[in-house]
Amino acid sequence: MSLWEYANPVKFIRTTDKVLPWVWALTGICLLTGLVWGFFFTPDDFRQGSTVKIIYIHVPSALMAINAWLMMLVASLIWIVRRHHVSALAARAAAPVGAVMTMIALATGAFWGQPMWGTWWAWDPRLTSFLILFLFYLGYMALWEAIENDDTAADLTSILCLVGSVFAVLSRYAVNFWNQGLHQGATLSLDKEENISDVFWLPLLVCIAGFVLLFIALVFLRTQTEIRARRTRALLAREGQA
What we know:
The protein has one domain. Helices cover 77% and strands 0% of the residues. It contains six helices and no strands. Helix 1 packs antiparallel against helix 6. The longest helix is centred in the last third of the chain and has 44 residues, at 198-241. The protein is globular, with a radius of gyration of 20 Å. The relative contact order is 0.17.
């Protein structure tokens, strides 16, 4: 069985209809377990106190904000190369989800930063690149809505996605590119000296898994909606020409 078979809209909807209930169930289990574990069964940090528990929302949402755009990039490249409509619609479906994840990351970062840095916002390299990434999300969605022809919109948004990927990468590695800035280094690291303690790390991994599954479920659901909307527009166009 070829992966490209799922580029068929009917096959995609039938397959995701079967998968979605399981993804939703796993999402609920992971999020409930991770958040309850993290907020109620982990100690306060010796420096940051209970504020550190924002990590269970901030880090997963920040990771998904970046990876959602990278998923859109892959889907856009597939559209450019293979011209599969499902890939273009999947990229469109992922954009609002990624934008919300970015907004959550910015908001929780502000709430975390205020008691730690003494300010709600700083023009830190990572924060600034995240803000620009959020603006690219808004621009991407606006461009889809501004163009009536779906294929033309997919072409132009794919190009925009390629450009915006620079800021997605910067958002991930800004602290490695520039030493200055208030934002701490990577929370999850292969370096044991930099990685957070296991007491925080384990529930954080569960929360990350929950956010990943939530993203997958929402993208599947929204892609189905986009496929049906495209089909409806095509039918209405045919009736108008008849």
